[in-house]
Protein backbone atom coordinates (compact mmCIF):
# COMPACT_ATOMS: atom_id res chain seq x y z
CA UNK A 1 0.00 0.00 0.00
CA UNK A 2 1.20 3.53 -0.69
CA UNK A 3 1.64 6.45 1.69
CA UNK A 4 -0.80 9.20 0.82
CA UNK A 5 -0.95 12.71 2.27
CA UNK A 6 -2.18 16.12 1.18
CA UNK A 7 0.32 18.89 0.46
CA UNK A 8 -1.04 22.29 -0.57
CA UNK A 9 -4.36 20.80 -1.59
CA UNK A 10 -2.87 18.04 -3.72
CA UNK A 11 -2.65 14.35 -2.80
CA UNK A 12 0.92 13.05 -2.75
CA UNK A 13 1.11 9.29 -3.24
CA UNK A 14 4.32 7.36 -2.60
CA UNK A 15 4.18 3.77 -3.79
CA UNK A 16 7.24 2.36 -2.01
CA UNK A 17 8.48 3.97 1.18
CA UNK A 18 11.45 3.21 3.41
CA UNK A 19 9.78 2.83 6.84
CA UNK A 20 12.35 5.15 8.44
CA UNK A 21 12.86 7.67 5.66
CA UNK A 22 12.42 11.09 7.27
CA UNK A 23 9.94 13.71 6.18
CA UNK A 24 12.80 16.21 6.07
CA UNK A 25 14.91 14.18 3.64
CA UNK A 26 11.93 13.55 1.39
CA UNK A 27 11.04 17.24 1.29
CA UNK A 28 14.56 18.37 0.53
CA UNK A 29 15.92 15.65 -1.72
CA UNK A 30 12.83 14.28 -3.45
CA UNK A 31 10.49 17.26 -3.61
CA UNK A 32 13.14 20.01 -3.64
CA UNK A 33 11.33 21.92 -0.91
CA UNK A 34 14.56 23.27 0.51
CA UNK A 35 12.97 25.91 2.70
CA UNK A 36 12.76 23.24 5.40
CA UNK A 37 16.28 23.14 6.84
CA UNK A 38 18.37 20.51 8.58
CA UNK A 39 20.13 21.98 11.59
CA UNK A 40 20.54 19.21 14.14
CA UNK A 41 18.73 16.09 12.82
CA UNK A 42 17.60 15.33 16.37
CA UNK A 43 14.53 17.50 16.98
CA UNK A 44 16.36 20.14 18.97
CA UNK A 45 16.80 23.27 16.83
CA UNK A 46 13.44 23.65 15.06
CA UNK A 47 14.91 24.63 11.67
CA UNK A 48 12.92 21.80 10.05
CA UNK A 49 9.55 22.72 11.59
CA UNK A 50 6.51 21.83 9.49
CA UNK A 51 2.80 21.64 10.29
CA UNK A 52 0.87 18.36 10.17
CA UNK A 53 -2.93 18.37 10.11
CA UNK A 54 -5.47 15.68 11.02
CA UNK A 55 -9.24 15.61 10.67
CA UNK A 56 -10.87 16.47 14.02
CA UNK A 57 -14.63 16.56 13.68
CA UNK A 58 -15.52 19.39 11.31
CA UNK A 59 -12.10 21.03 11.48
CA UNK A 60 -8.41 20.26 10.96
CA UNK A 61 -6.19 19.97 14.01
CA UNK A 62 -2.74 21.32 13.12
CA UNK A 63 0.45 20.76 15.09
CA UNK A 64 4.04 21.80 14.55
CA UNK A 65 6.58 18.96 14.44
CA UNK A 66 10.25 18.45 13.63
CA UNK A 67 10.44 16.95 10.14
CA UNK A 68 13.94 15.60 10.82
CA UNK A 69 12.66 12.89 13.17
CA UNK A 70 9.25 12.22 11.64
CA UNK A 71 9.11 9.14 9.40
CA UNK A 72 7.26 9.28 6.07
CA UNK A 73 4.60 6.62 6.90
CA UNK A 74 3.55 8.82 9.84
CA UNK A 75 2.15 11.29 7.25
CA UNK A 76 -0.34 8.79 5.86
CA UNK A 77 -3.87 10.20 5.87
CA UNK A 78 -2.72 13.64 7.02
CA UNK A 79 -2.08 17.10 5.60
CA UNK A 80 1.31 18.78 5.46
CA UNK A 81 2.32 22.43 5.30
CA UNK A 82 5.87 23.63 4.67
CA UNK A 83 7.17 27.18 4.53
CA UNK A 84 6.57 27.12 0.76
CA UNK A 85 2.86 26.51 1.48
CA UNK A 86 2.35 29.91 3.09
CA UNK A 87 2.58 32.19 0.08
CA UNK A 88 -0.57 34.11 -0.81
CA UNK A 89 -1.15 34.81 -4.51
CA UNK A 90 2.51 34.02 -5.06
CA UNK A 91 3.74 36.51 -2.44
CA UNK A 92 4.85 36.09 1.20
CA UNK A 93 2.02 36.17 3.73
CA UNK A 94 1.67 38.87 6.38
CA UNK A 95 3.70 36.96 8.97
CA UNK A 96 6.61 36.53 6.57
CA UNK A 97 6.42 40.20 5.59
CA UNK A 98 6.51 41.21 9.26
CA UNK A 99 9.47 38.94 9.97
CA UNK A 100 11.40 40.49 7.09
CA UNK A 101 10.43 44.08 7.89
CA UNK A 102 11.42 44.16 11.54
CA UNK A 103 14.82 42.48 11.26
CA UNK A 104 13.78 39.05 12.57
CA UNK A 105 16.26 37.33 10.30
CA UNK A 106 20.00 37.64 9.68
CA UNK A 107 21.57 34.57 8.08
CA UNK A 108 18.05 33.24 7.54
CA UNK A 109 18.83 29.58 8.13
CA UNK A 110 16.52 29.21 11.12
CA UNK A 111 13.88 31.64 9.84
CA UNK A 112 11.61 29.15 8.01
CA UNK A 113 11.29 27.11 11.20
CA UNK A 114 10.37 30.19 13.23
CA UNK A 115 7.84 31.19 10.57
CA UNK A 116 6.19 27.77 10.72
CA UNK A 117 6.00 27.77 14.52
CA UNK A 118 4.51 31.27 14.57
CA UNK A 119 2.14 30.47 11.71
CA UNK A 120 0.88 27.49 13.70
CA UNK A 121 0.13 29.79 16.61
CA UNK A 122 -1.60 32.25 14.30
CA UNK A 123 -3.99 29.63 12.86
CA UNK A 124 -4.84 28.04 16.21
CA UNK A 125 -2.64 24.97 16.00
CA UNK A 126 -1.75 22.89 19.06
CA UNK A 127 -0.12 25.14 21.66
CA UNK A 128 -1.58 28.35 20.22
CA UNK A 129 -2.82 29.28 23.69
CA UNK A 130 0.78 29.49 24.92
CA UNK A 131 2.81 32.71 25.05
CA UNK A 132 4.89 33.38 21.93
CA UNK A 133 8.10 32.62 23.86
CA UNK A 134 6.83 29.13 24.70
CA UNK A 135 5.74 28.47 21.12
CA UNK A 136 9.24 29.20 19.78
CA UNK A 137 11.17 27.63 22.68
CA UNK A 138 11.93 24.72 20.36
CA UNK A 139 13.41 27.00 17.70
CA UNK A 140 17.02 28.12 18.07
CA UNK A 141 18.67 31.16 16.46
CA UNK A 142 22.40 31.75 16.65
CA UNK A 143 22.68 35.27 15.25
CA UNK A 144 19.56 37.42 15.61
CA UNK A 145 18.51 37.38 19.22
CA UNK A 146 14.87 36.63 19.86
CA UNK A 147 13.43 40.11 20.43
CA UNK A 148 12.36 40.86 16.86
CA UNK A 149 11.03 37.33 16.41
CA UNK A 150 8.90 37.59 19.54
CA UNK A 151 7.70 40.99 18.35
CA UNK A 152 6.63 39.53 15.00
CA UNK A 153 4.68 36.78 16.73
CA UNK A 154 2.85 39.30 18.91
CA UNK A 155 2.25 41.74 16.06
CA UNK A 156 0.66 39.41 13.55
CA UNK A 157 -1.83 37.79 15.94
CA UNK A 158 -4.29 35.39 14.30
CA UNK A 159 -4.49 34.60 10.58
CA UNK A 160 -7.61 33.29 8.81
CA UNK A 161 -7.50 29.83 7.28
CA UNK A 162 -10.31 27.97 5.53
CA UNK A 163 -9.88 24.20 5.90
CA UNK A 164 -13.50 23.24 5.20
CA UNK A 165 -12.69 21.43 1.95
CA UNK A 166 -9.73 19.68 3.53
CA UNK A 167 -11.67 18.01 6.36
CA UNK A 168 -13.66 15.53 4.29
CA UNK A 169 -10.67 14.72 2.09
CA UNK A 170 -8.59 13.87 5.16
CA UNK A 171 -11.33 11.72 6.66
CA UNK A 172 -11.50 9.70 3.43
CA UNK A 173 -7.73 9.53 2.91
CA UNK A 174 -6.96 8.04 6.32
CA UNK A 175 -10.06 5.93 6.80
CA UNK A 176 -8.33 2.55 6.65
CA UNK A 177 -5.31 0.97 8.26
CA UNK A 178 -2.16 1.17 6.20
CA UNK A 179 0.90 -0.97 5.64
CA UNK A 180 3.82 -1.25 3.26
CA UNK A 181 7.02 -3.02 2.37
CA UNK A 182 10.35 -1.71 1.10
CA UNK A 183 13.30 -3.96 0.31
CA UNK A 184 12.07 -6.61 2.73
CA UNK A 185 11.40 -4.18 5.55
CA UNK A 186 7.79 -3.72 6.61
CA UNK A 187 5.66 -1.09 8.28
CA UNK A 188 2.11 -1.06 9.65
CA UNK A 189 -0.22 1.71 10.82
CA UNK A 190 -3.18 0.10 12.68
CA UNK A 191 -6.34 1.93 13.71
CA UNK A 192 -7.43 0.05 16.85
CA UNK A 193 -5.90 -1.60 19.90
CA UNK A 194 -7.34 -4.94 18.77
CA UNK A 195 -5.53 -4.63 15.45
CA UNK A 196 -2.34 -3.56 17.21
CA UNK A 197 -2.49 -6.56 19.55
CA UNK A 198 -2.92 -8.92 16.59
CA UNK A 199 0.00 -7.34 14.73
CA UNK A 200 2.27 -7.67 17.76
CA UNK A 201 1.31 -11.31 18.18
CA UNK A 202 2.37 -11.87 14.57
CA UNK A 203 5.44 -9.64 14.76
CA UNK A 204 6.63 -9.70 18.40
CA UNK A 205 10.01 -8.17 17.46
CA UNK A 206 8.48 -5.17 15.67
CA UNK A 207 9.53 -1.72 16.84
CA UNK A 208 6.55 0.33 17.98
CA UNK A 209 6.83 4.03 17.15
CA UNK A 210 4.51 6.67 18.56
CA UNK A 211 6.02 10.14 18.21
CA UNK A 212 9.54 9.07 17.09
CA UNK A 213 11.12 11.73 19.31
CA UNK A 214 13.47 9.05 20.63
CA UNK A 215 13.48 6.40 17.91
CA UNK A 216 14.05 9.10 15.30
CA UNK A 217 17.51 9.68 16.76
CA UNK A 218 18.31 5.99 16.58
CA UNK A 219 18.00 6.40 12.82
CA UNK A 220 19.41 9.89 12.20
CA UNK A 221 22.26 9.70 14.71
CA UNK A 222 22.75 6.00 15.38
CA UNK A 223 22.10 4.97 11.74
CA UNK A 224 20.05 2.06 13.03
CA UNK A 225 18.02 -0.06 10.62
CA UNK A 226 14.54 -1.03 11.78
CA UNK A 227 13.22 -4.10 9.99
CA UNK A 228 9.56 -4.02 11.07
CA UNK A 229 7.87 -0.90 12.37
CA UNK A 230 4.38 -0.44 13.79
CA UNK A 231 3.29 3.19 13.88
CA UNK A 232 0.86 3.97 16.72
CA UNK A 233 -0.25 7.49 15.84
CA UNK A 234 -3.54 6.42 14.25
CA UNK A 235 -4.69 4.11 17.07
CA UNK A 236 -7.57 6.20 18.32
CA UNK A 237 -8.06 4.15 21.52
CA UNK A 238 -4.55 5.07 22.67
CA UNK A 239 -5.30 8.80 22.36
CA UNK A 240 -8.26 8.81 24.75
CA UNK A 241 -8.29 10.88 27.94
CA UNK A 242 -10.85 9.97 30.60
CA UNK A 243 -11.59 11.06 34.11
CA UNK A 244 -13.27 9.42 37.06
CA UNK A 245 -14.09 10.87 40.44
CA UNK A 246 -10.72 9.85 41.81
CA UNK A 247 -8.35 9.43 38.85
CA UNK A 248 -7.20 10.57 35.44
CA UNK A 249 -7.09 7.83 32.80
CA UNK A 250 -4.75 8.71 29.98
CA UNK A 251 -4.07 6.67 26.87
CA UNK A 252 -0.48 5.76 26.09
CA UNK A 253 -0.70 7.55 22.73
CA UNK A 254 -1.73 10.91 24.17
CA UNK A 255 0.80 13.50 23.08
CA UNK A 256 2.35 15.59 25.82
CA UNK A 257 0.92 18.78 24.30
CA UNK A 258 -2.58 17.33 24.82
CA UNK A 259 -1.71 15.93 28.25
CA UNK A 260 -0.50 19.29 29.55
CA UNK A 261 -3.87 20.69 30.64
CA UNK A 262 -5.21 17.53 32.35
CA UNK A 263 -1.89 16.98 34.12
CA UNK A 264 -1.83 20.61 35.24
CA UNK A 265 -5.27 20.12 36.77
CA UNK A 266 -3.87 17.27 38.86
CA UNK A 267 -1.15 19.56 40.19
CA UNK A 268 0.49 22.79 38.89
CA UNK A 269 3.99 21.33 39.32
CA UNK A 270 3.08 18.45 37.01
CA UNK A 271 1.79 20.91 34.44
CA UNK A 272 4.99 22.95 34.62
CA UNK A 273 7.08 19.79 34.30
CA UNK A 274 5.22 18.82 31.13
CA UNK A 275 5.62 22.34 29.73
CA UNK A 276 9.38 21.88 29.91
CA UNK A 277 9.48 18.51 28.17
CA UNK A 278 11.28 19.59 24.99
CA UNK A 279 10.02 22.34 22.74
CA UNK A 280 6.43 22.49 21.49
CA UNK A 281 7.34 20.46 18.41
CA UNK A 282 8.59 17.64 20.65
CA UNK A 283 5.50 17.78 22.89
CA UNK A 284 3.32 17.75 19.75
CA UNK A 285 4.86 14.40 18.79
CA UNK A 286 6.12 12.67 21.94
CA UNK A 287 3.59 10.64 23.93
CA UNK A 288 3.04 9.84 27.59
CA UNK A 289 3.22 6.11 26.91
CA UNK A 290 6.27 6.37 24.70
CA UNK A 291 8.15 8.22 27.42
CA UNK A 292 7.35 5.31 29.73
CA UNK A 293 7.73 2.40 27.32
CA UNK A 294 11.29 3.17 26.26
CA UNK A 295 12.40 3.03 29.91
CA UNK A 296 14.89 5.89 29.79
CA UNK A 297 16.41 6.67 33.22
CA UNK A 298 16.15 10.39 32.40
CA UNK A 299 12.61 10.50 31.06
CA UNK A 300 10.82 13.43 32.69
CA UNK A 301 7.37 11.89 33.04
CA UNK A 302 7.94 8.68 35.05
CA UNK A 303 9.36 10.16 38.33
CA UNK A 304 6.39 12.51 38.70
CA UNK A 305 3.85 9.84 37.79
CA UNK A 306 5.46 7.33 40.16
CA UNK A 307 5.23 9.86 43.00
CA UNK A 308 1.55 10.36 42.16
CA UNK A 309 0.95 6.60 42.54
CA UNK A 310 0.23 5.90 38.86
CA UNK A 311 -0.75 2.43 37.65
CA UNK A 312 0.15 1.09 34.22
CA UNK A 313 -2.01 -1.10 32.00
CA UNK A 314 -0.26 -3.40 29.54
CA UNK A 315 -2.21 -5.16 26.80
CA UNK A 316 -1.64 -8.02 24.37
CA UNK A 317 -3.72 -10.43 22.34
CA UNK A 318 -3.95 -12.52 25.54
CA UNK A 319 -5.49 -9.76 27.64
CA UNK A 320 -4.49 -7.00 30.03
CA UNK A 321 -2.44 -6.73 33.19
CA UNK A 322 -1.91 -3.81 35.56
CA UNK A 323 1.01 -2.87 37.77
CA UNK A 324 2.31 0.08 39.77
CA UNK A 325 4.32 2.20 37.36
CA UNK A 326 7.54 1.82 39.37
CA UNK A 327 7.40 -1.97 38.91
CA UNK A 328 7.60 -1.62 35.12
CA UNK A 329 11.23 -0.48 35.24
CA UNK A 330 13.46 -3.47 36.00
CA UNK A 331 16.97 -2.36 35.04
CA UNK A 332 18.73 -0.17 32.51
CA UNK A 333 17.15 -0.91 29.13
CA UNK A 334 14.93 -3.61 30.62
CA UNK A 335 11.23 -3.26 31.36
CA UNK A 336 8.51 -5.67 32.46
CA UNK A 337 6.89 -5.88 29.03
CA UNK A 338 6.42 -9.33 27.54
CA UNK A 339 6.61 -10.15 23.79
CA UNK A 340 3.40 -9.02 22.15
CA UNK A 341 2.54 -6.51 24.90
CA UNK A 342 2.15 -2.77 24.56
CA UNK A 343 1.52 0.04 27.02
CA UNK A 344 -2.19 0.82 26.72
CA UNK A 345 -2.98 3.41 29.38
CA UNK A 346 -2.08 5.01 32.65
CA UNK A 347 -4.25 5.61 35.70
CA UNK A 348 -3.12 8.57 37.81
CA UNK A 349 -4.92 9.06 41.14
CA UNK A 350 -6.07 12.58 41.91
CA UNK A 351 -4.08 13.92 44.87
CA UNK A 352 -5.78 14.95 48.05
CA UNK A 353 -6.29 18.74 48.09
CA UNK A 354 -4.13 18.91 51.21
CA UNK A 355 -1.30 16.77 49.81
CA UNK A 356 2.16 18.31 49.97
CA UNK A 357 3.69 17.95 46.51
CA UNK A 358 6.79 19.28 44.81
CA UNK A 359 8.15 18.33 41.38
CA UNK A 360 11.09 19.82 39.54
CA UNK A 361 13.34 19.27 36.56
CA UNK A 362 16.96 20.42 36.79
CA UNK A 363 18.88 20.83 33.54
CA UNK A 364 21.79 22.84 32.22
CA UNK A 365 19.49 24.79 29.91
CA UNK A 366 16.02 25.75 31.12
CA UNK A 367 14.11 24.98 27.91
CA UNK A 368 14.45 22.03 25.54
CA UNK A 369 17.08 20.18 27.51
CA UNK A 370 17.52 16.73 29.01
CA UNK A 371 17.32 16.49 32.80
CA UNK A 372 20.34 16.05 35.01
CA UNK A 373 17.93 15.29 37.85
CA UNK A 374 14.15 15.11 37.82
CA UNK A 375 12.46 14.65 41.18
CA UNK A 376 8.97 14.38 42.60
CA UNK A 377 7.84 14.29 46.23
CA UNK A 378 4.28 13.63 47.42
CA UNK A 379 3.50 13.66 51.14
CA UNK A 380 0.36 13.17 53.18
CA UNK A 381 0.48 15.21 56.37
CA UNK A 382 -2.12 14.72 59.11
CA UNK A 383 -2.08 16.76 62.30
CA UNK A 384 1.51 17.78 61.61
CA UNK A 385 2.75 14.21 61.06
CA UNK A 386 3.78 12.70 57.74
CA UNK A 387 1.60 9.62 57.29
CA UNK A 388 2.72 8.63 53.79
CA UNK A 389 5.53 9.55 51.42
CA UNK A 390 6.30 8.81 47.80
CA UNK A 391 9.64 10.17 46.60
CA UNK A 392 10.90 9.36 43.09
CA UNK A 393 13.81 10.51 40.97
CA UNK A 394 15.08 10.26 37.41
CA UNK A 395 18.72 10.69 36.48
CA UNK A 396 19.85 9.15 39.77
CA UNK A 397 19.92 5.44 38.84
CA UNK A 398 19.64 3.05 35.92
CA UNK A 399 15.85 3.48 36.00
CA UNK A 400 13.35 6.01 37.38
CA UNK A 401 13.14 4.87 41.00
CA UNK A 402 11.59 5.52 44.38
CA UNK A 403 13.85 6.55 47.27
CA UNK A 404 12.83 3.96 49.85
CA UNK A 405 15.25 5.00 52.61
CA UNK A 406 14.25 8.62 52.18
CA UNK A 407 10.57 7.68 52.38
CA UNK A 408 11.20 5.66 55.54
CA UNK A 409 12.93 8.66 57.10
CA UNK A 410 9.84 10.76 56.44
CA UNK A 411 6.91 8.54 57.39
CA UNK A 412 5.82 8.83 61.02
CA UNK A 413 7.86 11.98 61.60
CA UNK A 414 6.66 15.50 62.28
CA UNK A 415 6.61 17.69 59.20
CA UNK A 416 9.49 19.96 60.18
CA UNK A 417 12.64 21.36 58.62
CA UNK A 418 14.68 18.92 60.70
CA UNK A 419 12.74 15.97 59.29
CA UNK A 420 13.21 17.15 55.72
CA UNK A 421 16.93 17.65 56.32
CA UNK A 422 17.28 14.17 57.80
CA UNK A 423 15.48 12.68 54.79
CA UNK A 424 17.74 14.63 52.45
CA UNK A 425 20.81 13.19 54.12
CA UNK A 426 19.78 9.56 53.63
CA UNK A 427 19.44 9.88 49.85
CA UNK A 428 23.03 8.67 49.65
CA UNK A 429 21.84 5.25 50.79
CA UNK A 430 19.19 5.20 48.05
CA UNK A 431 21.31 6.26 45.09
CA UNK A 432 24.85 6.14 43.73
CA UNK A 433 24.39 8.28 40.61
CA UNK A 434 26.87 8.31 37.78
CA UNK A 435 28.96 11.25 36.61
CA UNK A 436 28.44 12.37 33.02
CA UNK A 437 28.30 15.50 30.88
CA UNK A 438 25.08 16.64 32.56
CA UNK A 439 26.38 16.51 36.11
CA UNK A 440 28.65 14.80 38.59
CA UNK A 441 27.51 12.20 41.10
CA UNK A 442 28.01 14.70 43.91
CA UNK A 443 25.98 17.35 42.08
CA UNK A 444 23.10 14.95 41.49
CA UNK A 445 22.96 13.89 45.15
CA UNK A 446 23.06 17.50 46.36
CA UNK A 447 20.46 18.59 43.81
CA UNK A 448 18.12 15.77 44.83
CA UNK A 449 18.55 16.68 48.49
CA UNK A 450 17.80 20.31 47.66
CA UNK A 451 14.44 19.34 46.19
CA UNK A 452 13.39 18.12 49.65
CA UNK A 453 14.64 21.37 51.18
CA UNK A 454 12.80 23.36 48.52
CA UNK A 455 9.55 21.58 49.34
CA UNK A 456 9.86 22.70 52.94
CA UNK A 457 10.65 26.30 51.96
CA UNK A 458 7.77 26.45 49.54
CA UNK A 459 5.34 25.22 52.21
CA UNK A 460 6.53 28.08 54.42
CA UNK A 461 5.66 30.58 51.70
CA UNK A 462 9.28 31.25 50.75
CA UNK A 463 9.92 32.03 47.10
CA UNK A 464 12.37 29.53 45.63
CA UNK A 465 12.21 30.52 41.94
CA UNK A 466 10.99 33.22 39.58
CA UNK A 467 7.77 31.26 39.16
CA UNK A 468 7.21 31.31 42.91
CA UNK A 469 7.87 35.04 43.05
CA UNK A 470 5.22 35.59 40.37
CA UNK A 471 2.76 33.41 42.29
CA UNK A 472 3.41 35.28 45.53
CA UNK A 473 3.02 38.66 43.79
CA UNK A 474 -0.19 37.46 42.18
Automatic annotation (TrEMBL):
Record-linked SUPFAM superfamilies: 2Fe-2S ferredoxin-like, CO dehydrogenase flavoprotein C-terminal domain-like, CO dehydrogenase ISP C-domain like, FAD-binding/transporter-associated domain-like
One Pfam family cited in the UniProt record for this chain: Fer2_2
Metal-binding found in the keyword field: yes
Occurrences of domain FAD-binding PCMH-type (ranges): 180-353
MF (Gene Ontology): 2 iron, 2 sulfur cluster binding; FAD binding; iron ion binding; xanthine dehydrogenase activity
Top-rank lineage group of the source organism: Bacteria
SMART domains: CO_deh_flav_C (SM01092)
Domain called 2Fe-2S ferredoxin-type: residue spans: 1-86
Keywords carried by this UniProt record: FAD, Flavoprotein, Iron, Metal-binding, Oxidoreductase
PANTHER family in the cross-refs: XANTHINE DEHYDROGENASE
The protein's name: FAD-binding molybdopterin dehydrogenase
Record organism: Novosphingobium malaysiense
Amino acid sequence: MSVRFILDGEVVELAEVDPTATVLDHLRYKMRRTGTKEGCAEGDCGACTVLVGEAAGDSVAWRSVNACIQFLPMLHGKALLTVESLKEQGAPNSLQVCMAANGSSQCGFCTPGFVMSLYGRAIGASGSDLPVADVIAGNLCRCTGYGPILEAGETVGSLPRDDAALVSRLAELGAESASGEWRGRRWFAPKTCEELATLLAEHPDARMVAGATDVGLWVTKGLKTLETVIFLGDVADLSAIGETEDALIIGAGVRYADAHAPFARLHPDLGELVRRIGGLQVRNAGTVGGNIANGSPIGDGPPALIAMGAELTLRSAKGRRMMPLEDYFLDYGKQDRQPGEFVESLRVPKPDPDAVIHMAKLSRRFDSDISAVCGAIALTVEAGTITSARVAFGGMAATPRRASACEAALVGQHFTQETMEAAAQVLESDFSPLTDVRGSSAYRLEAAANLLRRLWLREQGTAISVLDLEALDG
